[in-house]
Amino acid sequence: MKQLFYTSCQQGKSWTGKEGFQVRAASAGLGGERLLQAVRYMGYQLPQNGRNPLESFHYLPVRLAFLQTPDLGYVLCHSVSAGVDPTTHRPGNFFSHLLLELPPEFSPAKAIQTWGSPFWQKTDGPFDILLPEIDTIEPGNLLTEERLRQFLLSEQRQAMFRFVLGAILSTPPDWRIFVAAYPEEVAFCIYGITRLLPEACQKSLTFSTYEAQPLLCPARLIGLWPEPIAEMASYCSQARAVSYHSGTGQSSLPTAEGEFLRLAVRAAVAGNYQELDQFRQVCDRCGLDRAELLNLAYRAEQGGPVSQEELRQLAAYPRFLAHLLAKPAEQPGMLFPFLKDAQLRETLDNHILPIFQQNPTAMARVVHWAETSEKVALWLASKCGTDLFQFLPEPASLEKLLNQLVRCPLDRLLEEPRLVQFLARALQTPLPALLRQKIESVWGIWQFFQQPGWLTQQQLTQLIDALHTCPATPFLIRKVLSMAIARLLARPDSLDSSRLAEALFLRLGPVWPEGAARLYNQVLEQLTGQPRFWNRRYLVSSLIGMGLAGLPSVPFTEDSFQMAVQARDLAQKLLAHSPRKTFCFLQQQASTWPPEAQFRWNLLAKFLCRPTFWQRIRTLTSKILPPLRKENPPHRSPQMTSSIDSLSFSEPKEPMKIFRTTSDE
Length: 665
Description:
By secondary structure, the chain is an alpha/beta fold. It has helices at 32-39, 108-112, 145-151, 155-170, 183-196, 232-238, 259-270, 274-286, 294-301, 308-314, 318-325, 335-339, 342-348, 352-358, 360-370, 374-384, 395-405, 410-415, 417-426, 433-450, 457-469, 474-490, 495-508, 516-527, 537-549, 558-577, 582-590, 595-624, 626-629, 638-645, and strands at residues 2-9, 20-27, 63-69, 73-84, 91-100, 130-131, 176-180, 207-208, 221-224, 241-245.
């Protein structure tokens, strides 16, 4: 740590050699710019309306300021009155001793303990202008626990200390606290705060025991000379601040209350810090660094009532929440209010299992609640996985928990690997048939997503059963369809693949969100974009048959008509891609289709043959008739010419007639 002295210097006895208020001495390595920056925080003035300093030297204020500066970081400055100015021979001289480049572990508690230390230089003397760097500061002996206890025996001082501690616990860290009191009293209040608050909550604490111009001081806790102060209200109005006057007891805050405040004051007055220190250790271990949460944290620690909004404030400290849940179960706690909130449950993450391992009684309560709550069961199983089995008291508890899990949407079950592992482990235990079927369906679809390869009949069965037995969101159903189509395309083209496609369509249609007709359209959109699709004749023929069959056991509706039209277009495109033997192959496959599909195919086959027949006629006439067109020979009539030229293919104007049912025909 580097040192710096500042006072009114005589000619030739300053850092610059000039007289007046100058840097008297400094450590090596401090350049001119840093010296100018440091001097800003070394100012000192006597009280404007105080006692005559030449008559009452005992009452002259001592300034000990621990400040966080934007240019120098943390600095610690000690300033006292130095009597008469050696150059002007008038009162108002002062001597300031500044430390900068403080180590990271230098805390507000170490800073205030230097109050009254013999280390501080208070007067000018015959020393060199080059000061050594130091490693430690000798603490003073004026601030101790016993002297704090005696200080708080006065009701007036205890009220002041309650205000200061209550302001620290109730105001944001960027607010300032003005206290009109003698510097010794302010120093005791600061020492009491550093002794009572957890170390993590003292990081934002900066202070000054005395300031003549408090609005210019960047500290959080600022002492003012109390004789008299008429500007306290104006100070609070000009800044986000609260104030207290030790002489009148006037305060800008209501009477401070709170569980931690009462504990802290009681410990300081009695001199017994055992209970307080235990709570401070908990806060430091759990990283609780906000002083405004200490009252709430101590109330929750003692098992008092805590609201959902207060729990959300504590959710920023999951280790503290874990500590609360690990407390003995017989203590009235916040376990159930905590688990009701999904946002709070997520804050525990991986802390929940160690908590329940340390407190089986609490775990038993959670398991009992999970048996009746779907959300709690989902959260508990996903966090604990197979380790949850060691906490289940009896087989009936496992069955109740599983019944809650299978009610959850299927995609929620598949999101957590540890939850799926728990379900797979549950299959190794005796379970009712219906419950086992549902869990096997979940396990089957999980394996379907995890394993590559083509789609088998067993996988298809498990896939569809899972979608029928467990609630599934539309997003998951579409994802299953996409993966099933990809698996179908991975198989060799055969009659087996066409049967799988038909089974997938017929069994997936009832659970498709927009209906079977929309499902058929989705399948065609995904398949027709594949490059090898038109070479898979078995798969394409099965899709044509499904489209012509329409919706099973449902009268011919507009949806069925749209499916039939799409099947017709699909057949035309297939013939265009591979005309050779394709028509005969479709004729052969049509014999295996449902009666409705066979009837519509017979009508469609005539329709599909017509363009090929008339195309051949036109090709033949194009070779034969050109010689007859020359100069309109007499043996060719105009009627014959017009009838031959009109030979062309045109689709029926009413395609609906082609797809009538047998009964309509």
